[in-house]
Design brief:
Blueprint lengths: L6 E5 L3 H14 L4 E6 L2 H11 L3 E5 L7 H8 L4 E6 L2 H7 L6 E4 L4 H17 L7 H15 L6 E6 L2 E6 L3 E7 L2 E7 L5 E6 L3 H5 L7 E5 L2 E4 L3 E6 L5 E5 L5 E4 L11
Parallel strand pairs: 1-2, 1-3, 3-4, 4-5
Antiparallel strand pairs: 6-7, 8-9, 8-12, 9-10, 11-12, 13-14, 14-15
C-alpha cells in the first residue's frame, strides 16, 4: 500500500510569486502536491477548510486578512510556513523554530532547508506544534513594522507655485469644507497659509502624534506652537498660538488633553 502524498496550500496576493513558489517546491520536493492556491488570507482559510492540506505557505502581508491572521484561524490543522520580505524581524520571531519562514526573493538553498524540516515533522506524525503565543508575538512585531514613518512634508499650492512645507513648521491644520487649511511659519518665521485637497482626517493618521494634537474635530495643532490655553464655558477651551492672532477652539471631547495646563 503506497503512502499518501503530502499536500500543500500556497497563499500570496501576487500570482507570479505563487507560481514561482509552486515551481521551486516541485523541484525541491517532487512528492509534494500543491492542492490549492489562494489570493488572500480569507481564501487561504477557506481552502484549508476544504482541502485540509498538510502544509500552508502563507505570505505575511496579504490584503484583507493577513497571513498571520489566517494562521491564527488555521491553528494546528496544518504545518505553517510564512513567506516574508522582511528578514530582520522574521529571524527574531521564528527563533523558536515552531514555524518556518522563507524570505523573498526565494532562494533554493533556503527552501531546501525548509523542506527538510517539514519532511522531518511529517515523518514524526505528531500534530503541528502549538503556536498561538508565537503568532501573537509576530503580530505585534508586524504591527510595529507596518506603522509608517510620520509625514515630513506637505505639498501645497501657494499662488502659482507648488510649495513643499516641512511639517515641523506647521502651526495648525483646520478643516475647511472640502479642503484643509495649512497654517505654517515660513521664511524668517513669517506666517503663511495654503489650502490642500487632502481631508484633515487623512492627514491626522500621518502626523507624528507626539508633536501634533487634535483639539477639535476640525482642528489639529502643533504642540510647539501653543502659547497657552484658556478655559471657556460648558467644558470648552481655546488654544492661543505663539505669534498668531488665531484662537482655536478645543471641544469637550479633547479638553482632557489640557487638564494639567
Amino acid at each position: 500500500m503506497t503512502s499518501r502524498r503530502p499536500t500543500a496550500l500556497i497563499a500570496d496576493d501576487e500570482p507570479l510569486l505563487r507560481k514561482s513558489l509552486a515551481r521551486l517546491l516541485g523541484e525541491a520536493w517532487p512528492e509534494l502536491e500543491v492542492v490549492a492556491q489562494a489570493r488572500n488570507g480569507r481564501e487561504a482559510v477557506a481552502q484549508c477548510d476544504a482541502m485540509k492540506p498538510d502544509i500552508c505557505f502563507l505570505d505575511v502581508h496579504m490584503p484583507g486578512l493577513s497571513g498571520v491572521e489566517a494562521a491564527r484561524r488555521i491553528g494546528q490543522r496544518a504545518h505553517l510556513v510564512f513567506v516574508t520580505a522582511y528578514d530582520q524581524y522574521a529571524v527574531q520571531a521564528f527563533e523558536q523554530k515552531a514555524i518556518d519562514y522563507l524570505v523573498k526573493p526565494l532562494e533554493p538553498a533556503r527552501l531546501a532547508d525548509t523542506v527538510a524540516r517539514l519532511q522531518a515533522r511529517l515523518r514524526a506524525a505528531g500534530p503541528p506544534p502549538e503556536i498561538e503565543a508565537l503568532l501573537e508575538q509576530l503580530a505585534v512585531r508586524l504591527e510595529r513594522k507596518a506603522s509608517p514613518a510620520p509625514l515630513r512634508w506637505i505639498h501645497a499650492s501657494v499662488g502659482q507655485a507648488l510649495r513643499p512645507i516641512p511639517v515641523e513648521e506647521i502651526d495648525f491644520l483646520r478643516s475647511d469644507e472640502k479642503y484643509t487649511l495649512i497654517a505654517w511659519r515660513g521664511d524668517g518665521g513669517k506666517p503663511g497659509e495654503a489650502l490642500i485637497r487632502t481631508p484633515l482626517k487623512d492627514l491626522v493618521e500621518q502626523l507624528d502624534r507626539s508633536q501634533f494634537v487634535q483639539v477639535h474635530r476640525s482642528v489639529v495643532v502643533n504642540r510647539r506652537a501653543i502659547s497657552h490655553v484658556t478655559r471657556g464655558a460648558n467644558e470648552t477651551a481655546h488654544v492661543h498660538l505663539k505669534g498668531r492672532d488665531e484662537v482655536l477652539p478645543v471641544s469637550r471631547s479633547y479638553l482632557h488633553l489640557f487638564r494639567q495646563m
